[in-house]
Backbone:
């Protein structure tokens, strides 16, 4: 069934990199309507010819209030959607309430809420009898001390609501707790990032060893009809900032399969029966473990990686699910290429004195995309600040994953020039 002409409402456009997903919706022929807060960059999508309408609605961070405001704004604008969705983490809980308000296909709001909160996700997975790291909610330093007695060391302190590893830190001893608590509290504020308008409680949980993966699922009527796995590279602990990934993975196939199976079981037990999910997990020394469940398409260029490697369009899969249509998937039996993604971080503090990625596209690259996050002259923070500045995101496709990883190593072998502060 054609998607052309269907009115699709996107609640919360997110950061400007999400324009790629919104452009894809436009290319699929839907009539795109974007709902966002006053002054948001996405208002320009109408002039750019990507969105048919842009509707203003206030955002407070409370999903019930924000959904009510969106429903009122859409009614005032005369918009009657055929589907409601979002690609933006901050808006997931609001978007499902808007879809539910129009009686349109969506995952149950209560299920999405329980996945969105890292505290509730741990509580529910424990209640379901699924393998779950020990975890406790934390609202004060005293509660952090008490929680680590239960969780043990090493442990991970992170926000209950967050994304992109913001404020996620490993802690190894009781003596580190005051400094770690202060560090994370300084990150978890609405002033630092709007995602924390939902709340600023923390969670401390058991540290998981092993290799981390991103598991992208397409669910239809409670069954997984497609999965793709990307293998994450080790982070520069104590921070858990992403350093890169490759797809397809080259880890032990049986271990990866067990992790995918566990991700699917989590989705099913949580009641996430439809659409695209992005679930992060680890193959640990004690078996597979889930890190977090995201009821949305993966961030960055994940949907482009999956399409290049497997020939599956996750944006189309999500819009079809949101329209109540069966998925139209024809994945390749074998990887069509290998993908490597390199996150270039500042290797010391100072000022960026060169291009963030000073090397040119290698001849062996089938696809080479550099997304700069910092420009020459900008001040940057190195790993001594725990959360280093991201300078660029480099995406590479090659004939196979080994070649893609070798090209990624070239990027890392040519770091940008960072001048000392004040020089």
Residues:
């Amino acid at each position: 069934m054609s998607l052309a002409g269907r009115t699709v409402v996107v609640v919360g456009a997110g950061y400007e990199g999400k324009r790629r997903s919104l452009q894809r919706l436009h290319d699929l022929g839907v009539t795109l309507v974007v709902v966002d807060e006053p002054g948001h960059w996405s208002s320009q999508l109408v002039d750019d010819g990507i969105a048919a309408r842009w509707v203003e609605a206030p955002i407070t961070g409370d999903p019930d209030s924000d959904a009510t405001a969106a429903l009122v704004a859409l009614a005032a604008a005369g918009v009657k959607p055929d589907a409601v969705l979002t690609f933006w983490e901050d808006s997931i809980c609001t978007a499902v309430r808007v879809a539910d308000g129009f009686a349109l296909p969506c995952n149950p709001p209560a299920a999405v809420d329980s996945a969105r909160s890292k505290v509730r996700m741990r509580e529910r997975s424990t209640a379901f009898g699924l393998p779950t790291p020990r975890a406790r909610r934390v609202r004060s330093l005293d509660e952090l001390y008490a929680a680590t007695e239960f969780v043990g060391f090493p442990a991970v302190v992170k926000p209950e609501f967050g994304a992109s590893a913001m404020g996620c830190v490993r802690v190894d001893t009781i003596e580190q707790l005051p400094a770690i608590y202060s560090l994370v509290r300084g990150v978890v504020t609405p002033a630092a990032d709007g995602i924390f308008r939902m709340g600023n409680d923390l969670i401390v949980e058991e540290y998981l060893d092993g290799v981390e993966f991103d598991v992208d699922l397409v669910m239809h009527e409670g069954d997984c009809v497609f999965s793709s796995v990307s293998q994450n590279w080790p982070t520069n602990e104590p921070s858990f900032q992403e350093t890169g990934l490759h797809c397809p993975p080259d880890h032990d196939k049986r271990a990866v399969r067990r992790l995918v199976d566990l991700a699917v079981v989590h989705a099913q037990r949580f009641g996430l029966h439809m659409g695209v999910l992005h679930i992060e997990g680890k193959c640990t020394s004690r078996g597979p473990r889930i890190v977090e469940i995201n009821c949305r398409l993966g961030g960055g260029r994940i949907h482009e990686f999956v399409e290049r490697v497997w020939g599956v369009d996750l944006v189309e899969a999500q819009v079809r699910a949101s329209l109540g249509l069966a998925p139209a998937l024809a994945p390749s039996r074998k990887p069509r290429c290998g993908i490597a993604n390199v996150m270039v971080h500042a290797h010391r503090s100072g000022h960026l004195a060169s291009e963030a990625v000073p090397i040119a596209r290698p001849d062996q690259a089938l696809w080479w995309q550099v997304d700069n996050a910092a420009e020459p002259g900008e001040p940057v923070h190195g790993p001594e600040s725990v959360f280093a500045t991201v300078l660029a995101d480099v995406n590479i496709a090659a004939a196979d994953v080994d070649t893609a990883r070798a090209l990624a190593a070239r990027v890392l072998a040519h770091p940008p020039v960072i001048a000392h502060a004040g020089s």
Q: What stands out?
A: Residues 212 and 238 are 15 Å apart (CA to CA). The chain has eleven helices and 19 strands. The mean pLDDT is 95. The radius of gyration is 21 Å.
